[in-house]
Amino acid sequence: MKNLFYTIFAISICLLLGKLANALLAALPASLYGMIIYALFLQLNWFSVARVTKTNQWFIKHMGVCLVPAGMGIIDNFQLIQQHGISLVAIIFSSTLLLLTVIGYLSERFLTTSNNNTAKTTTGSS
């Protein structure tokens, strides 16, 4: 129970700092700033990882219940999904395929170029 309050306190502090960062920078949502700050504080050991682990695992396990508004949004727009479901699936599939293809091509191109330059530098200095 102590760890629950500790975790809620840690997340609340990070969320408040995230809201402050959002007010100052406004480039990202406050919750995203809060998550970044939370991860940073855990990396710096400003919050005890051992004390927040079990509570965070419980939150992740029950995330579906915490994200009910997203499910409700789908239910509220079910008519649109019924009418355009095949189009939505086609768009999602094709955009994912396109994205993976472009990223694969670019990473292959730049990683191969990087490896070739490293090999030339290594063999040239011998």
Terminal residue distance: 63 Å
Q: How many separate helices?
A: 6
Task: Characterize the biggest β-sheet.
Answer: none
Supply the helix-strand structural class.
mainly alpha
Helix fraction, binned, reads over 70%
Shape: flat
Could you tell me the number of beta strands? Answer: 0
Beta percentage is: under 5%
Overall pLDDT level:
84
How many domains make up the coordinates? 2
User: What sequence of helices (H) and strands (E) makes up the elements?
Assistant: HHHHHH
Low-confidence stretches: none
- Alpha carbon gyration radius: 23 Å
Q: What's the layout of helices and strands?
A:
Layout (H helix, E strand, L loop, with lengths): L1 H24 L4 H14 L5 H13 L1 H4 L1 H9 L1 H47 L2
Helix pairs in contact: 1-2, 1-3
Write up what this structure looks like:
By secondary structure, this protein is mainly alpha-helical. It has 2 domains: 58 residues, no CATH class; 50 residues. Helices cover 88% and strands 0% of the residues. It is built from 6 helices and no strands. Helix 1 crosses helix 2 and helix 1 packs across helix 3. It is flat. The N and C termini lie far apart (63 Å). The relative contact order is 0.06.
